[in-house]
Amino acid sequence: MSVPANLKYTKSHEWALLEADGTVTIGITDHAQEALGDIVFLELPDAGRTVKAGEECAVVESVKAASDIYAPIAGEVVAKNDAAIDAPESVNQDAYAAWLFKLKPANAADLGALLDASAYEKIATES
Amino acid sequence: MIQKTPLYETHVAAGAKIVDFAGWQMPINYGSQIEEHHCVRTNAGMFDVSHMLAIDLVGAESQAFLRRLLANDVAKLTVPGKALYSCMLQEDGGVIDDLIVYFFTETKYRIVVNAGTSEKDLAWMRLQAADFAVSLTPRRDLAMIAVQGPQARERFWTAFPVARSYSVTLGVFQAAEWDGWLIARTGYTGEDGFEIAIPATEAATVWQKLIEAGVKPAGLGARDTLRLEAGMNLYGQDMDETQNPLESGLSWTVDFKDANRNFIGKSALVGRQAAGSLKVFLGLLLLDKGILRAHQKVVTAHGNGETTSGSFSPTLNQSIALARLPAGVAIGDEVQVEIRDKLLKAKVVKPVFARNGKSQL
Predict the structure, then answer these.
(1) In a domain, B239, yes or no
(2) Is B322 within 8 Å of chain A by CB?
């Protein structure tokens, strides 16, 4: 299980990365893709949608089951990863490269409340 | 109670992801479920199905007992080793389980039932057997392995060359006994192959020999997408005690031909037929993007129906489902399936999506 130290995490197995331009890139963790198995469909939010922290805003479907993805922080969606929609298996191949969507955060300081790598690793190991 | 098959340690050592299935610790995959699926469609894969229960039936009235117990008619079995698929029904026509029965003589049969229903099945069989001179013996001392795929039989014979002469002439749905094994040309994938029942003590060795012959282990995940593509029902999902076989795509397994045969559930099914407007059980092919799952609402011109099984089809690279739909819905109709508050377009198709390595649509 890979848990990069430079990312922030949620208990619901999303990762978030604050980019240099102030946007936040969001995906699912390696642990999550492993648990889901072969991913075959992604439903991602359109640019312009405003989301609250913890709001259901995407769906990742594996052969086995559908899984809701939650916004780690509040903000406005500025992009979704069309390449991942066309090749959902890329999330299995590298969950940290195959991001799902990008947010312009309502308040960048909200990221501080998310889990760091060691705290997430503890949760993922126990789940 | 958590149960493990004789191959549990073998699966764990192979890195399988283990899940609970009807109280059994079973491998769902050994890496990629989709790769395992393709391997069975194009080459040869194997499944540990030792969680299923073989029950041996012997006694002077074995045939009469099964003709009462089962909706299909075992009287049509006359060649030793021949197998028959049947439902076992309640008096009201609800399905207690679906099973395979193997004929050896009119006083000796083997019945193979589902894992999750095995205790319930045995209790029901024993209750019904009270009036017949028969005895039922559950065989938890056996392991069962399904070797499936276009190369399955050849690879099995590579692993066990001596078995070839005993099993090379077996037709579909026929079995032969060999050195304490039962080799049956049956399966649950829509591919050729064998299901073998062997002493549990030999399971790990046999599994290893099959791996050396080029057979790849496959988990319950691939087993589910393979059977769904093949249009085979899963008990507990596509039918159960609240559904009858006539509205579950299983009319072909209910044998009414002998008017003198009074099988359990017969009068209820006759009544249901007379009442008319039987629901139809058909396939769905999703035309929009998304994944069909069990228990989604299907909106048709004749009223609403429901998906009973749904998944992504690795062979078709599209989503498919089995569905119970109102009378009047026909193959070729376009319907809508409700997925997360959206109505997506689907086409009604015959419930056989892929078999023998290719699409059947």
Answers:
(1) no
(2) no
CATH of the domain at B346: 2.40.30.110
Distance from CA of A50 to the nearest CA of B (A): 19
Task: Give A126's pLDDT tier (boundaries 50, 70, 90).
Answer: confident
The answer to whether the Cβ–Cβ distance between B312 and A40 falls below 8 Å is yes
| Strand order, beta sheet including A101-105 | A8-9, A14-18, A24-28, A101-105, A75-80, A50-51
B contact residues 185-244, partner A, Cβ 8 Å cutoff: 221, 225
CB within 8 Å: A63 and B290 = no
Residues of A with CB under 8 A from a CB of B: 37-38, 40-41, 43, 59, 61, 63-66
* DSSP line for B129-171: HTTSS-EEEE-TTEEEEEEESTTHHHHHHHH-GGGHHHHTT--
Q: B147 has which bridge partners?
A: B46, B194
Contacts of B20 in chain A (CB under 8 A): none
Q: Do B206 and B290 belong together in one domain?
A: no
Interface membership of B29 toward A (CB under 8 Å): yes
Tell whether domain A8-105 is in CATH 1.10.20.10: no
Angstrom CA distances, B323 to A2, B146, B239, B284, B351, stand at: 40, 27, 11, 7, 9
A41 CA: distance to closest CA in chain B (Å): 6
The ipTM estimated for the assembled molecules is: 0.87
Q: Which residues of chain B have pLDDT under 70?
A: none
Per-residue pLDDT reduced to its tens digit, A82-94 = 999 999 999 999 9
Contact flag A63-B221 (C-beta cutoff 8 Å): yes
Domain ranges of chain A: 8-105
B6 & B97 share domain:
yes
> What is the overall mean pLDDT for chain B?
97
Is residue B155 domain-shared with residue B77, that is, in the same domain?
A: yes
Nearest chain A residue to B311 by CA distance is: A63
Residue A127, pLDDT above cutoff 90 = no
Instruction: State which of B208, B231, B254 marks the end of a domain.
Output: B231
Nearest to A101 by CA among A35, A33, A34, A28: A28
Q: In this structure, are B13 and B116 located in the same domain? A: yes
Specify the pTM.
0.94
Question: Can you give the pLDDT at residue B328?
Answer: 97
> B85 and B219: one domain?
yes
Specify whether B140 is located in the same domain as B2. yes
Range of the domain at B280: 245-359
Contact list in B for residue A61 (CB cut-off 8 A) is: 290-291, 312
Residue B168 and residue B95 share a domain: yes
Q: How far is A60 from A43, CA to CA, in rounded Å? A: 7
pLDDT in tens, B245-291: 999 999 999 999 999 999 999 999 999 999 999 999 999 999 999 99
